[in-house]
Amino acid sequence: MSYSDKQSFYKDRINKKISGVCAGLANGNGFPVWSVRLAAVFLLFMFPAAALLSYFAAALILPSRYY
């Protein structure tokens, strides 16, 4: 069993719109950035309190990457 150094949860400071959470999650997991942002907006409309709380928690906790 091998482990990867690649961290899949981080904030992308280059392609950010607000804080880089959606861009970092998309780049780390191989998804298009627009699809993660669309899912975040959908969750914001369906579960506004949970979506806002989790987004701001991720913005505070996740490390930043500049590439």
Helices and strands in order:
Layout: E1 11-12, H1 21-29, H2 33-46, H3 48-61, E2 64-65
Parallel strand pairs: 1-2
What general outline do the C-alpha atoms trace? globular
Order of strands side by side in the largest beta sheet? 1-2
Give the total of beta strands.
2
Beta fraction: 5-15%
Tally of DSSP helical segments:
3
Mean pLDDT: 87
Please state the structural category. Answer: mainly alpha
Cα-based radius of gyration, to the nearest Å = 12 Å
Query: How does the major sheet shape up?
Result: 2 strands, parallel
State the end-to-end CA separation: 28 Å
> What order do the SSEs take from the amino end to the carboxyl end, as H and E?
EHHHE
Poorly predicted parts: none
What's the helical proportion of residues?
55-70%
Summarize the structure in words.
This protein is mostly helical and 67 residues long. The chain has helices at residues 21-29, 33-46, 48-61; strands spanning 11-12, 64-65. The model has no long low-confidence stretch (mean pLDDT 87). 55% of the residues lie in helices and 6% in strands. Strands 1-2 form a two-stranded parallel sheet.
